[in-house]
C-alpha cells in the first residue's frame, strides 16, 4: 500500500526539490484538433489532477506554484483540447499548478486583459502561495514539452513560434498568446489595462499587417517598468492555434493604437490596482476552476 506521503504531518517525508530540467520530457509533440474531445475522456486520462484542476508532483517539491489563467467565453470545445493536451504536459514538467478559466458573463464586448487581471486576484484568493501567473489563450497548445511553464527573472513569452505566423515571431515586441509573470513582475507593471475592450488587447496588438515595425515596442508596460521579455529557443516555443473565426462581440477596437501610445500616462491609474468586477460563480470542476465574472461593459 502507498504511504500517505501527501498528508502533512511530523512523519511526512521531505521531498527533494524538483529538478531544473525535469526527466521524462518527450520533446516535440503531435498536436491535432480533428476528432472532437469528450470531457469524460480527458477526465479519465488525468486521474491525478485534483478538483479545481490542481496538481502537485508526488515525488519532488517545486520551487514555484503556477496559476494558469485562461480568458474565456463560449469556447468549450477549445477548452477540452487545451485540457487534454496541457494537463499531461504540465505534469511531466513537474509543476505545482492550478487552472483558472475566467469566464466573461453576458454578451457585452469581450475584454481579455481585464479577465486576466481578475484571474490574478481570484487565483490568489484561492491560494495565496501562487507566485507565477501564466496567461494563456484557450486555443493555444504547445508543440514541445520542453517549453517549461515557469516564471523567471524577466517576464516570459512562451508562444513565440505559432503555426499561423509560419512558426516565427510576428514582430519583435510580440507578447501575445501565452505569457507569464511572477507576482512581483505583475505588480510592477500594475497588471494589465482594464480599458481595452474588444479584440486587440495589450498582449496582441499586431492587428494590421505591415505595421509591425511601427509597433515594435508593443508591451510598453514591461519596457516602461524596465524589464525585458525572455523567450525559449525558437525551435521549442512552437504552438498550434485551433483554427477559428473572430467571435461575436470581440470586434477589433479602433482605439487600440492610440490607447497603447498613452500607456505611459495611463498605466499607473489603470491596472490591477483599479480593476472593478463582480464574481458571480466559482465552480471547481475536475480539471479546472471556472470563475464566472461580470466585468461590466465599455463606456
Ligand atoms: C490574438 C492573440 C491573443 C490576443 C488577441 C487580441 C495570438 C496567438 N493570440 O488572438 O493573445 O492578444 O489576439 O485580443 O497572437 N476569447 C474567448 N471568447 C471570445 C473571445 C475571446 O474565450 O468570444 C478568449 C480565448 O481564450 C481566445 C482569446 O480570448 O483564445 C483571444 O481571442 P481570439 O482567439 O479570438 O484572438 P486571436 O486568435 O486573434
Ligand atoms: Mn485565437
UniProtKB/TrEMBL annotation:
GO terms for biological process: carbohydrate metabolic process; lipid metabolic process. The chain holds residues 77 to 375 of 381 of the full protein. It catalyses: a beta-D-glucosylceramide + UDP-alpha-D-galactose = a beta-D-galactosyl-(1->4)-beta-D-glucosyl-(1<->1)-ceramide + UDP + H(+); an N-acetyl-beta-D-glucosaminyl derivative + UDP-alpha-D-galactose = a beta-D-galactosyl-(1->4)-N-acetyl-beta-D-glucosaminyl derivative + UDP + H(+); N-acetyl-D-glucosamine + UDP-alpha-D-galactose = beta-D-galactosyl-(1->4)-N-acetyl-D-glucosamine + UDP + H(+); a neolactoside IV(3)-beta-GlcNAc-nLc4Cer + UDP-alpha-D-galactose = a neolactoside nLc6Cer + UDP + H(+). Its EC number is 2.4.1.-. One of its GO terms (cellular component) is Golgi cisterna membrane. It comes from the Eukaryota. Residues 18-151 form the Galactosyltransferase N-terminal domain. Keywords: Disulfide bond, Glycoprotein, Glycosyltransferase, Golgi apparatus, Lipid metabolism, Manganese, Membrane, Metal-binding, Signal-anchor, Transferase, Transmembrane, Transmembrane helix. It is a single-pass type II membrane protein. Residues 156-200 form the Galactosyltransferase C-terminal domain. Responsible for the synthesis of complex-type N-linked oligosaccharides in many glycoproteins as well as the carbohydrate moieties of glycolipids. This is Beta-1,4-galactosyltransferase. Its cofactor is Mn(2+). One of its GO terms (molecular function) is beta-N-acetylglucosaminylglycopeptide beta-1,4-galactosyltransferase activity. Pathway: Protein modification; protein glycosylation. Belongs to the glycosyltransferase 7 family. It is found in: Golgi apparatus membrane.
